Amino acid sequence: MCIYEDQIGKFDWRQTYVGRIKFSQFDTVSTAKKLIVATEENVLAALHLKTGQIVWRHVFESASSGNIQLLHVSDKVVTVTGSNPYLVRGWDSSTGVLIWEWSLTLQDNDHAEFSEWWVQHGLLVHMLPIFNSHIEVTMYNLMSGQNRGATSKLPAPWVNEGCVLTPPYYTCVSGNMGEQRLLTVDVTSNAVQIINKPLFDYISLDVFDGNMRPLDANSALPGFIIDEKKVLLIKNNDFEQLNIDIVGASVSATIIEGPSEQILLQAWDDKTMGFSLIAHSVSTGKEVPEIKCSDRDHRIPDPELAAVMCTKTAREQHACRILINGADDAIHFVQQAGRVLWTREESLANVVAVEFVDLPVSETDAAIESEFDQKEAAKMYSSIWAAFTRRLQSQFQQLQTLLHGLQHADRAVASSNTNDLVRDYFNLHKVIVLVTEVGKIIGMDNLSGEVLWRRYEPSLSTASLAVFTRRTARHPPLDAYLTIVGTHEETGNGLIISLNPISGELVGERSLQLDGRLLQCAMLHRADEEKLHGLVVLYEDETIQVFPVSSAPLVEDMYMYVAEPETAYVRGYALRYDGKEARAQAIWSLRLGGAGPGSPGHRIVHAAARARLERTHSPGRALADRSVLYKYNNPNLVLFLTEGPDPVHKEVVRAVAVDVASGAVAAAGSHRRARAAPHHQAVHADHCLAYLYRSEKHRRFEIASMELYEGKERWLPAGAAFSSFASERAPAVERQAYIVPAAVTAAAVTVTERSLTDRHVLLALSTGAVVEVPWAFLDPRRPLAPTAEQREEGLLPYAPELPLPADAVLNYNRTLHRVRALHTHPAGIESTSLVLATGLDLFYTRVAPSKTFDLLKDDFDYHLISIVLVALVVASYGTKHFASRKMLKMAWK
Amino acid sequence: MSSVEDEAGNSRYVIEGRVFPPENQVLSNWQVETRIHVNGGEYIGFIKEDGSFAVHNVPTGSHVVEVVHPDYMYEPVRVEINSKGKYRARRVNYIQTSQVIQVPYPLRMKALSKFRYFQIREQWRLTDFLFNPMVIMMILPLLLIMVLPKMMNDPETKEDLKQITNLAKMSEMPEMSEVITNLFSGGATAKASNSKAKQIKKRQ
Q1: What is the per-residue pLDDT across A346-394, written as a single tens digit (0 to 9) for each?
Q2: Contacts by residues A338-344 (CB-CB < 8 Å, ≥ 24 positions apart)
Q3: Using an 8 Å Cβ cutoff, are A714 and A619 in contact?
Q4: What is this model's ipTM?
Q5: Closest partner CB to B71 (pick from A66, A100, A813)
Q6: B42-70 confidence digits (pLDDT tens)
Q7: pTM for this prediction
Q8: Closest residue of A to B113, CA-based?
Q9: B143 at A interface, C-beta within 8 A
């Protein structure tokens, strides 16, 4: 269950992320230069300039109380977090230690969300614009929070939603259409001076749609872009128009303090030229030749200049470091000529779906497999001689690859490109396909954590998403086939993306927008001639479509369910092919909410079905009296966890196990004064169900477990497939609840190839640990006082609290922040299950719930066994020699 | 700083305390690695250079305060703030939730012990090595080969041995071993076994 200290990093890796960059600034004061970033994920971190690795990191609350409103880097790092009340904190930039903090509560809670913050002359400035009325400005001592002079109110009826802040100036366009005026005010100066100019002095258009945005990346001069065409600077109480044209509409521009002059820097993604960068001198308007790049091969969607620092080298040249934030959440650290120093794939801080994909076998193995494939063999080698020559051929091929491998052994290790992505002997090597919230699909090598390919789909909305492996790589020469079903960002219609998970290239349907909104999607259980499983989608108007169309006749014995989370209304459909097309027919419905429509009922928090890959190979549990307790092994069972208000018990959590083919309820349970946990906190495997909830009465987390049994006699003859419609009997339910002495954020259960190995439940805790709990501890049959029989069976005596020992922590001291989901997948050997934890960080490892019984230990002493063997052989020959000599001597006597 | 922060009617409070680093341990930057979680991360506090912490904007009620460090274990504390703003800190007991064992407030959090995440690898010891079945397999035949002939030279033991072998032969034990030696040694020792066989024949 636990590892040795020298096994750190042997089977596991962790990748730490910060999330999409919201604010970033260079720390130039401390000796080791760093990049300080604050992110949308409420993380404050320092990144190493050379490698991009995290030097230190602070993770704030994930709720709005952790939102970062301001990042200011001088000799100290200052942050403002929260949303009324706010917390102002000062951090040491080199170590990350907290220096001071103070809390600030605004009286005016209604307008607080429009607050603006900045630091000026060692004072924290808070500005609150009240639209069409006035601006409130308050300054605080940065260290102590003492109010330096009370709030000052500037009357400004011209303030509206479209105003931009370029500290300390606040600029608005006001007035009727056609005679708009541009107004700006330095909100911190004692003497109020409003600059008021007609807008059309600066733009020649007749119509202005109010498009105005400030310069990015902590611009050295206060300025803004107006109508995506002109840059206006605020200088000497006046507007100054730069005579440099803005290249295009979606350009990110900033003014930087260069070594000798101020430079206007622009970055954009050109359709043909790729990522482009251009720089002009602010004073002369001339182009700066050194800072320029256009890289056809480097594409950054909607690049945004996040932070720029320029120095001059000895040879009078500009040396710039530019941090670029892409729309795909990746950040790139680029030199002035466009050379990328490092990239961080920050979209991985927000993974929404994970799929493990098997790798294809190597070419030689594929050849051998096809040779022994019955159908193939019958087709091609009718005579015995053909088969024999084929055998010789493949043997020769094997020999060749062996020799080749010996020759290039060192080179093969060094280069790990897609060519090396072949299945290993134990099928431990896989590709993990991760779909991130921003719409980026990433293929990752599970052993190294290296990103193999990435694909950005801006139109993919990931609010509800399903991933299907429609063809595994087991069928050479056919490639693996993976389909992602989501919704289109703009239309809300279904969107299907099909790709080869090994290479990341689009295949089959490619990227296909459907004509309607989707209710449900599923994969056909029977594959077509090309070994491809068809995809069935159910539209809102209850019609279905099958991809590819030729698979429609394969729709047979298909059932689907649709659950509405808010009303807890579940419907079941039967899918049939009537000779022309496949149709869906509603066959059952269930109101899990309890109340009728309109009144506040329950809502579904989570639905837990079995893992698609789970195959159960043990029909029951052997009891001490040598009889068998048969499991209720229903593959159609789904556990619905609902939560809702209750007039007597405040709130109630209900768990209902529903057979989603027939609509029958197999088991149910309810917990009073309890709240369901927000994330994936119900697990379902085989006949075991477990779910977590928070007991408000006892103020603790509890885990309830259920096991379903048929009884001591089988309902069906051995080997018969389970049918939801043939069994009218309800299973016997064993249930129990245990206290979890920690806050759980995600739960999963280990999956193995044949489900013969013990089952362990994995719990991710808020402390950052992932703990492995054997199912034996959650077993609902744990007796209070075990009898001799129960002890013989191996049941543990009941204990209310679940032990969470440190040696059961999978990730040891590698803390994982905000684990949102745990994903498990079987390996090729029965003992091992692969685990990936996603959240702010990624962590991959493999677990062996019943120890690695089918694998030699990794510390197996190969040397000792070979020494012993050699020594034994030598000794036996030696003794033989001595014995013969002795015989000879004896004979002479 | 006042401990009460009024916010639109309902009061918000500050939970204060101090974390003590594990003794006798010089940990660089332990302040950054240590976090204060209230109610499993609902409110998060950070530690200053001297180990003191304050979690701001906490409402009234019962809160579990945990000190989270990747390597050291701290005991959690339940802090209760009543509607009047009075604080009470007590030990967390998830089983008997009404049991009160008070602890001082402001909190003083001391490291209990180091987490033992890893199994300890067995040390290399001579006895372990010697009792390793493989090593025994190697050593024992060696002993038989080297020591037994030495013992044979001693006349007394020779007598004893003879007696033993005679006894053993009486019970017809060696036939089994003969079969095995025949199997393993093949032709080279065939002569020897032949002679032995003759001996047995004579006896019969």
Answers
A1: 999 999 999 999 888 877 677 676 666 655 555 555 677 877 887 888 8
A2: A338/A275, A338/A277, A338/A292, A338/A293, A338/A294, A338/A295, A338/A298, A340/A298, A341/A50, A341/A52, A342/A50, A342/A51, A342/A52, A343/A52, A344/A17, A344/A18, A344/A47, A344/A52
A3: yes
A4: 0.82
A5: A813
A6: 899 999 988 899 999 899 999 999 999 98
A7: 0.85
A8: A806
A9: no
